[in-house]
What we know:
alpha+beta; Beta-Lactamase; Heat Shock Protein 90
Amino acid sequence: MEVNRVACEMLGYTREELVRLGPADVDARFGAAAPPRMEQLQEIGREFAESEHRRKGGTTVPTEITTVAFDYGGEPAFLSVVRDITRRRQLEEQLLRSQKMEAVGRLAGGIAHDFNNLLTAILGYAEMALESDGLGDAAAGSIDEIRRAAQRSTALTRRLLAFSRTRLLRPRGIDVGRLIEDIKSMLLRLIGEDVRLVTSCEEAGLCVRGDPGQIEQVLMNLAINARDAMPAGGVLEVSVEGLEIRGTIEVAYPEADPGSYVRITVSDEG
């Protein structure tokens, strides 16, 4: 019998169009069973539920509905307050994803710790074997390959621990261009075959002091965001360049003191 302006805007109808419709036309809870449903609501007197409302164009919007039955001029009527909960649903999905990621992070951290213990033993025995007397060139070469593989695996373990945030921060000198080249294979696995990765470094030896695991984690997060922003594929670019901030006031970087910096730029086509 009556609708407010917000209901018209939410569902895309004019007031005249909306008042001519019945509950089954807009509320997914109804349908062919609309009359029995209305009788049930009349008996209950009050209902709180979640549903979906159909817009004029055919799309739907998730809704939260409070319905109260009352008499209107001696006739049974209903007052429904309908709230758009699209944003709440999005936040719930984000929370669910973050909880899943936290669980994955804990699992990765546990596996990485156990794997790290195994690698420590492998590296230790490989080092002792290389120091043994009478070791032939062929055997020494094979053992050295085992040692190198274990060292590469140790780097992977470090990244897993950084991902799970279970590793202590260890700031040190980092060649940023080399770090990006080292994790390039991991980034390629993250972004998939449809996204092309392009990396560039302005010059060699651009170094900063920091924790490499943190930088790697930031780059991995940005790579995943880029992949999600380009479902049909595209180009992900990661570039490194030196940056000199000379003045006391920099419009682009007001929080930075004058000096030499290294800038990592990540861009995509999403």
